[in-house]
Description:
The chain is an alpha/beta fold. 31% of the residues lie in helices and 29% in strands.
Amino acid sequence: xxxKSQWIDLALLRAFEAEGTDAHRLxxxxxxxxxxxxxxxxxxxxxxxxxxxxxxxxxDWGKSxxxxxxxxFARFLPKKNEERETPKLLFGxxxxxxxxxxxxxxxxxxxxxxxxxxxGLFVDQRENRRFVRQTKPKRLLNCxxxxxxxxxxxxxxxxxxxxxxxxxxxxxxxxxxxxLNSLSTEGHQFxxxxxxxxxxxxxxxxxxxxxxxxxxxxxxxxxxxxxxxVESDFEELIISxxxxxxxxxxxxxxTNCETLNEQALERMARYCLKLSRRAGSLHRxxxxxxxxxxxxxxxxxxxxx
Length: 305
Ligand SMILES: C[S@@+](CC[C@H](N)C(=O)[O-])C[C@H]1O[C@@H](n2cnc3c(N)ncnc32)[C@H](O)[C@@H]1O
């Protein structure tokens, strides 16, 4: 049994409900965490003791805050990408549709517990998506767009977006997320290609954006076999992105890679600015209230001068 952990309290649960958010972290421990998507729960674990401990505590937490738990899914957090698995149902109705919706600040996002390791929304980016809506960009380039959650946030405040991801299927889910929010995809682009090639192509065509999202995975490989390692390739990506922005534009530099904390991202961003002979300032959004310090993605916003 693991020690009793810190679960979000009733006041925070109510605050999320009041702001129209039902996708968020419930509890974080050393070897895992629990997140909520609507009434369904996803437990992510490194050890079976962590999984069982979180499942046990979840049931107590649900009773204490009178939360009507739907299904409980669990997924193992492997060290290697190849060992990633689709979440497994721990409790609940096997016959229920694995596809459901969750909301964040009243925006809807499709969740699919059967589509693979990730279910469709990274809740640790909530504050960054909020920042996107607050700053109302006009032209957003969403690199590594996945299900286009940043673009939905931007489109909801009037932006035109270009979404780039290797996965056609994820981009299709992105289009569906636009539809869920009654946003037309007309004028938005969905490009299934390597971000690096697209950045060069956009620069050759003289394209320009007032916001760029760079939130790459730790490692990936294209169909042509080209590898991307965030630790060694992020700087090149930032430098390419800087060719597409003028003064006043903002670039999100973000990663889940455990070896790159915010200080490391800050050093990278400053180095890239220097190399590109550009000036800019850096800031961080307040960390999400449901994430203990040091958990969740490391992120830095770069504002060009
Ligand atoms: C960490 S997720 C991005 C999450 C996204 N920013 C969000 O907040 O929802 C990584 C995504 O990058 C895509 N990807 C990985 N390597 C890529 C590459 N070289 N070019 C384009 N997309 C890539 C994957 O298909 C996946 O959808």
